[in-house]
UniProtKB/TrEMBL annotation:
Pfam families for the chain: DAO, Fungal_trans
Molecular function GO terms recorded: DNA binding; DNA-binding transcription factor activity, RNA polymerase II-specific; zinc ion binding
Biological source species: Colletotrichum simmondsii
Cited CDD domains: fungal_TF_MHR (cd12148)
Name recorded for this polypeptide: Transcription factor domain-containing protein
An individual GO BP term: DNA-templated transcription
Transcription regulation in keyword set: yes
Subcellular compartments: Nucleus
Length: 1087
């Protein structure tokens, strides 16, 4: 951001926020103005109070200040081309029960207005407009105020048009949900953090967040420790109900030209109510008399009124009492003539209130840089055209003394009892007990009837009740209108009410879901059941059917129904648990839901489903070897389920925290030539029967092999987690975690049958059709290969030891370890790219986020070597880095988790380049800047998605939400990396196009055997020695962290002769040990 330009971050795109953005960009065209809202500005539905079919535009205030402001805004509505198309001057008909009419008339005269405004006796007023209001309630009325200068506006269309114009003028619109405010060490507000973890910053942060304001301030106060942020009794979130009735053609003709009507009850202790002329869709609107708060405990001991936590504020869920209130207010206007009107819509509108109904347009006294422009108190829309003008005056400290006092954050406020428009009840009190208990009664009935899990077969033939939402297709956004009628209930997917835990499955959809499961999920990674076990769709338990569809709908046109299927499955699973009827399909359902959550990036929900399923396994003693001693028809299915859960735990389970399981607890065991006592010491459940790809009965199947390598991978993840918390023993020590993991890796590798190794299966020679037919084998084989190369890549990742050296004085990394570990990381990261090339070439569809994670890890290694001095390695690393990114992006359509991972990698890449504009394909810098927090995020796969309001979305109440620190992307959290001299590369296509790096040191002899593998052969072909590459270090290099921790990269290669001869096999002089024909034998005969 250009620091010379003022920057404004406006949170909330209702009338306060949009008006502020519009006026700011007009007054300061060069300013940075960002408008953030949870909804797109042209969304079909929004939660902003100003998003509505229509809103009143009037200047009939008995308060002089607001009368003056409303007249100013009304003039803009009438005369400004931007606003004029949305204003309808129908006039106002106000039934007054006090001196209200005379006060309004006096204010207009004082302001020199000559509007057509008059107070009429009731008998005369009743005859106006062809007697439309003859049956209205006139009890206690003194007179009727008629102001023909007022009217109404198409609120949604107007809000959308002004937002579009603001964007056209230069405002940046960001669709994101705000989780909390951000503050620096001095307590100054610096911006916001979104629910996806993104930080948006500006000099001025303006909250125009309406009903969400008190909750946002409460959460931000708890997170920052700034208790004075809280709104306290300054702001109250409240709702009111609006209703619409559809008129027939004849009635529409009568009411089409009616004025806006008001029933004023000033002095009678009741809020005024009103009715607005019908839209072109013949829908007549009015609002109720009940204004209510929704007070909940959002943090321990902290109660705040806020809209319901649903994404749409539950604005369409209107209780019976509120609907009855709408009917009562309708009768106060239209009497018996409205008895047969068809009610079409009910909506709850939420806004922020003050006890005086004054706005708050003010700096926040608790934090510099934080401002508020909110609290419309249900009368803010009519000021839309001018609100931003006064917000700017507030920012510039030029508000008139009166407005500054009335709109101040800290001011003396009147008792709310003096304001009849102030909320008068709680939402919970307006929901009948029978409505609150309805869902519980249904579930109780299900339990009493034997678990409430209806057989799927019994539902066959029933019509499908769920409809996919349909939306208007438009080609020109400017022609789309939202004010007239938002999506009707019949065209929207309603919230489940009656029989909400019963879903009807179309047989074709079920067949598609099963096929998709076996195409994308079976044995990749989970292996719960075989095809014959789920072949009869009608006999599947409903929770299993729902879980299958919840997982596979992302791969089909049923994607919009994922949440429905998931919710249904969760409800039925909990009923099984509550009723004590859990069986193997219940745990399988949890396994599928867990994997679906991990794909979606909802890690906490996925871990909950996984933890619950593991606990159920423990209750069923499926984690005990002895349970499997007696073989029955479900024994192997139980084994597959247990180890499928272990695979998910290995890739996605938590590695930190006291309750995390030690990795050795669930270590699988492959056949070994070791002693019998060694094998007997392991009491883990046996692996399932798996003979795919084996050449003899005693060999282990490929899926079981991937489980065992996955266990080593889980140890690597634990090692990274420890490193991130500075728990790192010198890796070259024999008792280090590094040495233990490396030993386990070698032991597991040694037990892998030859029939599954790279050179044996020759994946790169297989035909595409052959791979498709035998996908059950090749999908887990690819998982095994990617895991095999990911383990040493991460274990030897240069980043771990560069960062570790900063915190551990004992990590003065020896040259030998650094050289070998760096080369291992680069070698296996290069092999990961080789595997990616083959997967792409063979058109193998993969969806497991694990593959995307491995690609991201390899990308970080190649990013590190993008600044190598050796031109060939720099070019090679740049190319491989781009391949990894493209491969990761291919997972985004099906995996929001990979989408979040891609965004983190993109952010880290831009930080590394030091610029926002970067062509990765041509980027080969001399140095890079590695973001430490983002690197940890990528290595640990801590990415979460932007569909979550909080890190535990769909699981925990806000009171249990853990505080997640923001990702620090400041200069203090980056490392400057300069790799002056690095291994060169060569290309060897003898084994299918593998590109491998070369050594930086000279070779003086050949080694004829490989101690790690007896099948390796020697190579004695002669070639010309490659000239060593040596660049003397500069002062800048000497000052860099990399130079001081990687001296071997800068040393004269001649000084390193012999260092590498201790264990690595040699090729011809001048060539690295992995060059020539030995490369094929050494690497791939091992695996």
């Amino acid at each position: 951001m250009d620091q010379s330009k003022p920057s404004y971050l406006i949170v909330g795109a209702g009338v306060f926020g949009v008006s502020t953005a519009y006026h700011l960009i007009k007054k300061y065209p060069d300013a940075s103005v960002t408008l953030v809202d949870k909804d797109a500005f042209d969304a079909d539905e929004r939660v902003a109070a100003s998003w509505d079919w229509n809103k009143v535009v009037r200047a009939d205030y008995d308060d002089f200040t607001y009368c003056q402001l409303a007249l100013e805004a009304q003039d803009t509505f009438k005369n400004d081309p931007l606003w004029q198309p949305y204003f309808h001057q129908t006039g106002v008909y106000w039934i007054c029960r006090s001196d209200y009419a005379q006060n309004v008339i006096d204010h207009h005269k004082k302001l020199g207005r000559k509007d057509d405004i008059i107070a009429l006796p009731i008998s005369e007023a009743r005859k106006l407009y062809n007697g439309l209001f003859e049956d209205a309630d006139y009890s206690g009325a003194k007179e009727v105020l008629v102001n023909r200068a007022s009217g109404w506006a198409a609120a949604g269309d107007c809000l959308r048009a002004v937002t579009r114009e603001s964007i056209k003028l230069g405002v940046k619109y960001v669709t994101a949900e705000t989780a909390s405010l951000e503050f620096d060490q001095r307590g100054n507000c610096t911006g916001i953090k979104t629910t996806t973890g993104e930080i948006l910053t500006a000099e001025h942060t303006i909250l125009s967040t309406g009903a969400y304001t008190p909750k946002l301030l409460e959460l931000s106060a708890a997170k920052s420790g700034l208790s004075n942020l809280r709104a306290g009794d300054r702001i109250l979130a409240a709702g009111i109900t609006t209703g619409m009735a559809e008129l027939d053609e004849e009635e529409y003709k009568k009411y089409a030209d009616m004025p806006v009507g008001f029933q004023g009850y000033t002095g009678h202790g009741k809020p005024f109510i009103g009715s607005i002329p019908p839209t072109k869709d013949r829908e007549l609107k009015w609002w109720g008399s009940k204004i209510f708060s929704n007070t909940k405990e959002i943090l321990p001991g902290r109660h705040v009124s806020a809209p319901p936590p649903a994404t749409d504020y539950s604005q369409w869920k209107v209780s019976r009492q509120l609907k009855e209130d709408i009917i009562e207010q309708r009768n106060l206007w239209y009497g018996k003539k409205s008895a047969n009107w068809k009610m079409t819509k009910h909506r709850i509108c939420w806004d922020a209130f003050t006890t005086s109904s004054d706005f708050i347009i003010s700096p926040h006294s608790a934090a510099k840089g934080l401002y508020l422009a909110t609290c419309g108190s249900f009368h803010g829309f009519k000021f839309f055209p001018v609100l931003g003008k006064y917000v700017i005056q507030m920012l510039e400290d030029s508000l008139s003394p009166e407005l500054k006092t009335r709109w101040a954050w800290d001011r003396e406020r009147p008792d709310h009892l003096q304001n009849p428009e102030y909320p008068n009840s709680e939402l919970t009190d307006l929901v009948d007990p029978d409505e609150r208990l309805q869902t519980l009664e249904e579930k109780l009935d299900l339990l009493l009837s034997g678990g409430g899990l209806p057989n799927h077969h019994a539902r066959q033939g029933q019509p499908q009740t769920q409809q996919q939402a349909t939306f208007e297709e438009v080609t020109d956004a400017s022609e789309k209108s939202f004010s007239a009628t938002p999506p009707s209930r019949r065209n929207r997917q309603d919230y489940p009410t009656d029989n909400s835990n019963s879903v009807v499955f179309d047989p074709d959809d079920m067949a598609t879901g099963i096929n998709l499961y076996f195409k994308y999920c079976h044995r990749q990674p989970i292996w719960c059941f075989e095809r014959d076990e789920v072949g009869d769709y009608d006999s599947l338990p409903e929770e299993l059917a729902s879980s299958i569809l919840a997982l596979t709908s992302r791969f089909s046109e049923q994607r919009d129904h994922m949440q429905l299927f998931s919710s249904n499955a969760k409800t039925l699973i909990m009923l099984r648990i509550a009723n004590g009827t859990v069986d193997i399909t219940t745990i399988e359902s949890l396994c599928l839901l867990s994997y679906a959550s991990f794909i979606d990036g909802n890690v906490h929900l996925g871990q909950f489903h996984l933890g619950l399923s593991l606990q159920l396994c423990r209750s069923a003693m499926l984690d005990m070897e002895s349970v499997y001693a007696v073989d029955d028809s479900t024994t192997d299915r139980k084994k597959r389920l247990f180890w499928s859960l272990q695979l998910l735990e290995q890739s996605y389970g938590r590695q930190d925290g006291l309750l995390s399981f030690p990795n050795d607890v669930r270590r699988p065991t492959l056949p070994s030539s070791g002693s019998q006592s060694e094998q007997d010491s392991c009491k883990a459940p046996p692996l399932p029967r798996d003979d795919l790809g084996t050449s003899s009965p005693g060999e282990t199947g490929i899926w079981n092999t991937s489980v065992c390598l996955g266990w080593v991978w889980s140890q690597v993840r634990k090692y990274v987690s420890d490193c991130s918390r500075n728990i790192l023993k010198e890796p070259w020590r024999h008792d280090s975690t590094y040495a233990k993991v490396l030993s386990d890796f070698m032991e597991t590798e040694n037990r892998i049958p030859m029939c599954h190794r790279y050179d044996s299966v020759k994946f790169y020679e297989r035909k595409i059709d052959e791979l498709k037919v035998n996908r059950d084998y090749w999908a887990p084989w690819l998982k095994e290969q990617f895991t095999y190369h990911a383990i040493p890549t991460v274990l030897n990742h240069p980043f771990l030891y560069i960062v570790g050296a900063q915190h551990n004085p004992n990590l003065g990394i020896p040259n030998t370890f650094w050289r070998r570990s760096s080369e291992q990381a680069l070698l296996h990261a290069t092999w990961i790219v080789r595997m990616i090339d083959m997967v792409v070439d063979k058109q193998v569809p993969l969806v497991d986020p694990f593959f995307g994670h491995v690609a991201a890890i390899a990308a970080t290694v190649h990013l590190y070597y993008c600044c190598a001095a050796a031109a060939r390695l720099k070019h090679k690393s740049n190319t491989d880095f781009a391949k990894c990114r493209r491969f990761l992006k291919s997972f985004i359509p099906c995996s929001a988790a990979c989408g979040a991972l891609d965004r983190n990698l993109d952010r880290m890449t831009r930080i590394a380049a030091g610029t926002e504009n970067m062509d990765v394909e041509d980027w080969m810098p001399s140095k890079i800047y590695l973001s430490v927090p983002l690197m940890w995020e990528i290595l640990q796969f801590n990415s979460t998605t932007d569909c979550q309001e909080i890190p535990t979305a769909g699981l925990l109440d806000a009171s249990l939400t853990p505080a997640v620190p923001p990702v620090d992307t400041s200069d203090s959290s980056t490392l400057e990396i300069i790799v002056a001299t690095s291994p060169e590369i060569t290309i060897n296509i003898a084994d299918g196009g593998q590109e491998a790096p070369t050594s930086t040191y000279k070779r003086t002899q050949n080694v004829s055997s490989n101690p790690a593998n007896s099948t390796a052969t020697s190579s004695s072909s002669s070639s010309t020695s490659r000239a060593a590459v040596f660049d003397p270090p500069t002062v800048e290099q000497i000052d860099s962290l990399t130079f001081n921790t990687t001296p071997w990269l800068y040393a004269d290669p001649s000084q390193l002769v012999g260092i590498g001869d201790m264990s690595y096999p040699q090729s011809e002089p001048g060539n690295a040990w992995w060059e020539g024909e030995n490369f094929n034998n050494i690497i791939f005969n091992q695996f």
